[in-house]
Design brief:
With 329 residues, this protein is an alpha+beta fold. It folds into two domains: 104 residues, Phosphorylase Kinase, domain 1, CATH 3.30.200; 181 residues, Transferase(Phosphotransferase), domain 1. The chain has 13 helices and twelve strands. Strand 3 and strand 4 form a beta hairpin. Helix 11 crosses helix 12. It is globular. It starts with 6 loop residues before the first helix and ends in a 9-residue tail after the last helix. 37% of the residues are buried.
Length: 329
């Protein structure tokens, strides 16, 4: 039986490259360097002993450092902290899942490290094993750092936002349908979208991701994710399917169009967030609101001419999701 076409597949279809181009990209992925187990000392040298000057930031997993390997590759090294809210299970989960994927819109994992520091100045002396993940370095900040700051938001014109939306959609479509095993990310949001030097988006942070059995429509699981981005049926009943990622993607699209953060957007007393406010729109008012935001981004004409199919999909998702169980996947 033919598999029903998914929401994400319909979304990216008008912008797909030829089969030949896709095959060339597959060959590039196969030729990419395999994940490897890095010695701790190599990563310490690459980051100058994890110096504060090389620190890029810190998340639930722990600090992230910029480094340069001996072969010249720039890397981002994520280091599990002892007091991390994410533990060894999430570390292994991310390492296992990312070792299975190769896509231009998913952050590339070069390797990992689980070892005791050999240097006496680095070793804690209690046998603790450091746990690190080594990724490609993505030069721009995460999307939230640009989108939700008034001054930096100006860098994101409509074309960039449009391309980011399509890139994330392609990455999700790959994870859901084209990877060896279906992967549900469970935490799609602006802070987990990294931007490379060409503004191409890369989905990151797979600590909460789940493999999804092909013979099931959904699985029951412990709820995990970020408030404001989780699908209602997942929050209320723990029913996880690829629709959960599609819902989160829809919230991200609304944020990109409006420049507002869903969780803190309160334009009216009867709407507690951006998604609830938009769900009250009629179809025609949603159309005008979307077009107005694109006019503000100074690309109104090209938006109308080139992206009519794209807009139709956005309207369908944003207008209909709160009234049913979400786009069919």
């Amino acid at each position: 039986m033919m598999k029903p076409r998914s929401f994400l597949e319909n979304l990216v279809k008008p912008f797909r490259r030829s089969r030949k181009a896709s095959q060339e990209e597959d060959l590039e992925s196969i030729a990419a360097k395999e994940q490897k187990n890095f010695p701790y000392d190599v990563l310490a040298a690459a980051t100058r002993n994890f110096s504060a000057k090389h620190k890029l930031g810190e998340g639930g997993f722990g600090p992230v450092y910029k480094g340069r390997l001996e072969d010249g590759r720039e890397v981002a090294v994520k280091k599990l902290s002892r007091g991390s809210r994410q533990g060894a299970k999430e570390f292994m989960n991310e390492a296992m899942l990312l070792s299975r994927v190769q896509h231009k819109n998913v952050v590339n994992l070069y390797g990992y490290c689980t070892a005791s520091p050999s240097s006496s100045t680095l070793s804690s002396g209690d046998g603790y094993q450091e746990k690190l993940l080594v990724y490609e370095y993505v030069p721009h900040e995460s999307l939230d750092k640009l989108l939700f700051q008034a001054e930096k938001r100006k860098e994101l014109d409509w074309k960039k936002r449009h391309d980011i939306i399509l890139g994330v959609a392609r990455g999700l479509l790959y994870l859901h349908e084209d990877a060896h095993t279906t992967i549900i990310h469970r935490d799609i949001k602006a802070s987990n979208i990294l931007l490379d030097d060409k503004w191409a988006p890369k989905i990151a942070d797979f600590g909460m991701a789940r493999l999804f059995p092909e013979d099931q429509t959904h699985v029951k699981t412990r709820v995990a994710g970020t408030n404001g981005y989780m699908a209602p049926e997942y929050v209320m009943h723990g029913q996880l399917s690829t629709k959960a990622d599609v819902f989160s993607f829809g919230v991200l699209v609304l944020e990109l169009i409006s420049g507002q953060k869903n969780a803190i957007f309160t334009p009216q007393p009867d709407a507690q967030c951006l998604l609830e406010w938009v769900s009250k729109f009629t179809m025609i008012s949603w159309l005008f609101w979307s077009l107005w935001n694109c006019m503000v981004l100074h690309d109104f004409t090209s938006f109308l001419v080139k992206d009519d199919v794209f807009l139709t999909h956005l309207m369908y998702f944003s207008h209909h999701y709160p009234r049913d169980n979400g786009p069919s996947h």
